[in-house]
Design brief:
It is a single chain. The chain is built from 13 helices and 3 strands, in the order H-H-H-H-H-H-H-E-E-E-H-H-H-H-H-H. The chain has helices at about 5-15, 20-40, 50-65, 70-85, 115-125, 130-145, 150-155, 185-200, 220-235, 240-255, 260-265, 270-275, 275-295; strands at about 160, 165-170, 175-180.
């Protein structure tokens, strides 16, 4: 395995592209698998000698036990790696130029219906215990801001601007964005912080949200809390994760006439392509309205 070239590429992803550790780990796994295959099957370690037929052979083996989405991700990892080799002068041309990615059928994001979201909000109003307040803060912040799980976990109290009613969020690639919130959300955050001080003398004061024991929030805790709540309250959902609340945030904005570019900025997407999936839900809603309202539908 060309370990020096791989490490140089990983450093590029980490320090220049500022990708998350999770994303970098995926690249490492994909590339390690590829180079192990090349070494075993073709006894080749030099990057300059890697032919596109080698890559096709590897992809053929990968397709046997993986979905089209996984195959596409592995192709993307290789494409980025070889593009970097061309950029740094190691290669003159990428062997990926004749490799095509499989077509992946687009799935519409699952979201909570607006009437169910209103019921959720009403249910969460009646929470007196610390555990209840913890659930309320986590779920309502997900739904009212559209933040990713990683972003909400890392959100600091100092990133809340109480006067301007907005949050400064650190997203992918360490890109900052501003998310406006309602007066109700600001009041919720104030109540949460006051209760946190009462409950825990030694609670993590820097981060906004903590666990029931006053420790820094971690992904599994937040995921399970949201999952358990949605399982109880929204029976029609297939997926019950924090990302469903993010999808609901975006879908409800689009269905109520929000500008696509504005939704893109609020979600922290780097391009409109990722945001455009929510327009499909808007079209489906229009079709449904047409069928109900038009006499000739």
């Amino acid at each position: 395995m060309p370990s020096a070239a791989l490490q140089s590429f990983i450093n590029y992803l980490q320090f220049e592209k500022r990708y998350s550790q999770h994303t970098i780990r995926s690249y490492q796994e994909d590339l390690s698998q590829f180079f192990q295959f090349i070494q075993t099957e073709f006894n080749e370690e030099r990057i300059e000698n890697i032919h596109y037929n080698f890559i096709r052979s590897w992809l053929a083996s990968v397709r046997e036990n993986n979905t089209a989405k996984t195959v596409a991700r592995k192709i993307s990892s290789l494409r980025s790696f070889f593009k970097y080799q061309v950029k740094t002068g190691v290669l003159q041309q990428s062997p990926m130029s004749q490799i095509t990615s499989p077509k992946i059928p687009k799935k519409l994001p699952e979201f909570i219906k607006i009437e169910d979201a209103e019921k959720l909000t009403q249910t969460l109003k009646h929470t007196d215990s610390w555990k209840g307040l913890n659930s309320k803060a986590l779920i309502l912040l997900f739904y009212n801001t559209g933040m990713r799980l990683s972003e909400l976990i890392q959100l600091k109290t100092s990133q809340v601007d109480f006067g301007r009613k907005q949050l400064k969020v650190l997203g992918k690639g360490n890109k900052e964005r501003i998310i406006p919130v309602s007066a109700d959300v600001i009041e919720l955050i104030k109540d949460y912080l006051n209760e946190k001080k009462k409950q825990f003398e030694q609670a993590e004061q820097d981060v906004l949200l903590v666990t029931e024991k006053g420790k820094k929030l971690y992904p599994k805790y937040a995921w399970l809390l949201v999952n358990n709540f949605l399982r109880e309250e929204v029976k029609t959902l297939h997926k019950k994760s924090p990302h469903v609340l993010r999808h609901s945030f975006a879908t409800h904005l689009m269905n109520n006439g929000a500008n696509l570019n504005a939704v893109k900025e609020l979600l922290g997407h780097s391009s409109l392509a990722a945001t455009q999936v929510y327009t499909h839900n808007t079209i489906e809603k229009l079709k449904e309205t047409y069928k109900k309202a038009h006499p000739k539908a």
